[in-house]
Structures are given as C-alpha cells and as structure tokens.
C-alpha cells in the first residue's frame, strides 16, 4: 500500500538525524505528492501570512510530524481510490472518508493531549475491513446490506446479524495480519464499539470512534449517540468543541465540515439521557448518576416508588390521563433530589443525606401528590408505594436498587 516515496518520507520524518533537505529531495521525485503538500500547506487549515511556494517552505511551515501524517494520508487515499470498496454505495467514497476520519482523529488527539500516531493511522485504516467482507461472504450479500444501510451503526448491526461479524472486527483481524501495532488494530476493531458495544478501552480508540462518528454525521448518517457520549467522556472533550475540531481537521481536505455538529451532538446526548414523556432522567442516565454519586463518596439513599394500581387508571380513564399522572409524579419526585424513570410507572430518586432524609422525602411525596391532584376528581384516590435503600462505599448500583425494590414490595404486601 505504501509507495517508495511515502516510505522514504515516513522514515526521514522519524529520523532525528535527517535534514529538511533530505525530505525535500524525497518529495520532489513525486509530483503528485509534492503538489498535495503545497496545497495542504497553503490551505485555510494552515493559514499563514506567507504562502509556501516551494517544498522546503511547505515543510518549514507545517513541520515534520504533519508531513509524515500527510504522507500516510496520501498513500491511503491512492490505495482506497483504486479498490471497489464494499458495495456500490461505497465506491468512490472510501478514500475520502478514510482521510477525513484520519485527520479528524489526529486533531481530536491533539486537543485531548493524546499521542497522534495511533489515532491518525487507526482513523485512516478504520474501514479496511470493508475490503475483505465481499471476499468472505460474496459481493452480492454485502451489497444488499450496503444498499440498505450505507454506513454508521445500522450497517454494523446488519452485518453482525447476517454474517456473525462486522467490517470493524474484520478490519482489526486484517490489521493484525499486516503486522500493524496492536493499538492500531484495536482502534480499527473497536471504531464502532465492538461486539458488546463496550466503552473505549483507551483514549486512542476513543479518538478514532469520535472522529468516525463526526465524519459520519457530516455525511448525513445517523449518529451513534451512546458511542459519542462515551468517547467524549473518555477524552474529556465537550460536545461544543466538535465544530472547531471538525473545521480544523477537514479544512485542508476538501470536505465540508459544516456547522452545528457540536450543538447537534449535545442535543442528541441530552435526548439520550432524558425520558421523553416525563422530562427526567431515563433508566440508563439515572443509573449512571447513581454510580457517579457513589464514586464521589457522597452520602445519600435511593427512594424507589411506583404508582399503585396504575393499570386501573389507564383502563378507566385512558392512556392520556395515565401519561399525565406519570408526568406529575416525576415533577413532584424531582423536588426531593435527582429523579429518574426506570420503566413504566416505576421511578427512582437519589436523595442526598441520610436514610432518615430519604424516609421523610418518601412520607411527604404522597401528601404533595394528593394535593397536586386535588383538582382532578378521577385521580384523588391515586397513591404511591416507596422503598428506600441507603448507599454505602463502593455500593453496586443494581444491588442498591434491589434492596429498595424489596422494601417497596414488602410495604405493599403489608
């Protein structure tokens, strides 16, 4: 995949004993590479008061590390430009996507204080598995999936269902067979989160995951919100930073970075955390909130509650009234701490302080709810049952909820 010029440039860029003159001589023998270097050096990404008119000036302007990255991008671009890709929808696009993700991954790594080489190469090669999927399973079968799901998480799911493996895992195997460093192969294998959709094990993997997700969004594919959220957390980067990152990374590559990526990610993240009906945390976000409070060592307890005879409310008065009741329970419960909807008519609330504070909150909850429903005769008989469990150091969240749930049902039975 790497031409003689590219190999020579990479070797010289990594050699502290080599001179700028050595790099210039190596690049001047490849007109296409030299032209690409000058274009990049004079792009908006590298805006300078002086334009580079020679290869030596370009190397001086952008530095050896950038020259090495550009050499890898050029090689990847040329290689992927010549291959058919993975289904007709991918043809003519893989090389552009690869360079965009590689550049974005390097920019993210720079912002997060992570070494650039692994994210950059992992980003460039993240989709190489798409080259071998047709060889393994037949082009027709792969094209059917490509036409149905052009990219993103939906395609990965479809591949796993059809073949038992996805292009990310296939790419990781291929990278290992090529003898690439293990951390690069890992970034390729996990760029969609892996078979169990686990969190990024390293910052380098997170850089590639986030870069691919950003470029996918720019291309108009649906965002994998959970993957983006985990990668941002792993790297300590805010969603608001993504517009600037995309603009910096893609300005020199002819890819329209667009605007509003950060705001859209923030909106999707919020949407993924909030229960749409009640406006409080959903189950996943509430459990994460509990884990964070417990890891911080803060004193607190969980109040678990559900609406008594909720099915009767739905049967007698319709689901619209039932939904309004759930919204009101969520509103009242939020007065005592951080509330979350665990599913159906079951709610949880993290109440800071002692178990006694949580008991008082549970006792007040019923009275406040009855008062708020006083103007709704059909709901005056509504009540809630509560169970309480105080958190201890290193408390397992699911075990905490089980204790609260046990008390709730004992009280219901009593």
* Backbone CA Rg: 27 Å
Order of helices and strands: HHHHHHHHHHHHHHHHHEHHEEHEH
| Separation of the first and last Cα atoms | 73 Å
Our count of helices gives 21
- Corresponding CATH architecture of the largest domain: Orthogonal Bundle
- The fraction of residues assigned to DSSP E strands is 5-15%
Global structural class: alpha+beta
Provide the domain count.
Answer: 2
CATH class wording of the largest domain? Mainly Alpha
> Which blocks of ≥5 consecutive residues have pLDDT under 50?
252-258
CATH topology of the largest domain, which one?
A: Hypothetical protein af1432
What value does the average pLDDT take?
80
> Got a strand count?
4
Strand order of the largest sheet: 2-3-1-4
The percent range for helix content is: 55-70%
**Any idea what the CATH superfamily of the largest domain is called?**
Hypothetical protein af1432
C-alpha geometry: elongated
Main beta-sheet strand count, sense and barrel state: 4 strands, antiparallel
Concise summary:
By secondary structure, the chain is an alpha+beta fold. It is 62% helix and 7% strand. The model is unreliable at 252-258 (pLDDT under 50).
